[in-house]
């Protein structure tokens, strides 16, 4: 299958058509109209087979995940997603694989009212790069640099499932198949917190999506905001599948350090706390307070009840060399 045949068959004319797209797939560039008094938010993420996903991951899940992780970045800034470009590198053009992969992409794109407006295809090791664009009211974007001493620290949902799913496969952990299925679904089909991100605008002082792990991503906020934090690890929400699959001290690295959960981590001042909780609840988002910002640039103290955890021993590495393609 030639490049333009592939584009015409799997991308052009498929998915939603937004009114703000003046020219989509088929020309040298796409043309879009950005709303007045808005800023353009742009993020790019590359996923390489054997580095960011297992070789036998279903193509439908891969298509979903490739879009989702980018929409999660937009959500962390409080942006409304609008358009994505996709660069796809394939070892060969497998028709069945492409059908499933593009179905996964179009499903999540349509759900969030996002149009695929262009990209590129080439031959080589399996790699997916997505550039997502969205809009945010001028001056309203949530950054990593606004956290202040006394602000409360929240997460929008449970952590640990994705990391446990990866390690269950790598280490052949003995986990009940039904629980493992639920854990794996969280890894392969993450849900970007787009609605939550837009609700946070005007209330949250800082935000980031949890892709590299709670502690690593919190550290980004602390460094940019020049503050420290205390985390109450026993308050961090987890799913039943996670709790049934691992317990004791072994659970902490997955909750605190692994990542790939794509929940939002945000800080909120005391005077906005109740109002934001109420607004998020209206969207069915039960965000949980897990700590507080304090002085001490970049320093994080983590407690399980009154017991202080040794977080220096919790470094976790993503699979970077396993499952190479």
Automatic annotation (TrEMBL):
Residue ranges that the Swiss-Prot or TrEMBL entry lists as coiled coil: none
Which SUPFAM superfamilies does the entry link to? PurM C-terminal domain-like (SSF56042), PurM N-terminal domain-like (SSF55326)
Major enzyme class: transferase
Write out the residues that bind Mg(2+) 5: 212
Name the Gene Ontology molecular function terms of this record.
thiamine-phosphate kinase activity
Residues engaged in binding Mg(2+) 4:
28, 43, 73
Instruction: Provide the alphabetized UniProt keywords.
Output: ATP-binding, Kinase, Magnesium, Metal-binding, Nucleotide-binding, Thiamine biosynthesis, Transferase
User: Binding residues for Mg(2+) 2, per the UniProt record?
Assistant: 45, 73
InterPro entries linked: PurM-like_C_dom, PurM-like_C_sf, PurM-like_N, PurM-like_N_sf, ThiL-like
Query: Which residues of this UniProt protein bind Mg(2+) 3?
Result: 28, 73, 209
The UniProt record gives the binding positions of substrate as: 52, 260, 316
Kindly list the positions annotated as binding Mg(2+) 1. Answer: 44-45, 120
The PurM-like N-terminal domain, residue ranges: 26-136
* Pathway recorded for this protein: Cofactor biosynthesis; thiamine diphosphate biosynthesis; thiamine diphosphate from thiamine phosphate: step 1/1
Function text:
Catalyzes the ATP-dependent phosphorylation of thiamine-monophosphate (TMP) to form thiamine-pyrophosphate (TPP), the active form of vitamin B1.
Q: What else is known?
A: Reaction mechanism of ThiL seems to utilize a direct, inline transfer of the gamma-phosphate of ATP to TMP rather than a phosphorylated enzyme intermediate.
Instruction: Please give the family membership noted in the entry.
Output: Belongs to the thiamine-monophosphate kinase family.
The name of this protein is Thiamine-monophosphate kinase
Organism, per UniProt?
Pseudoalteromonas qingdaonensis
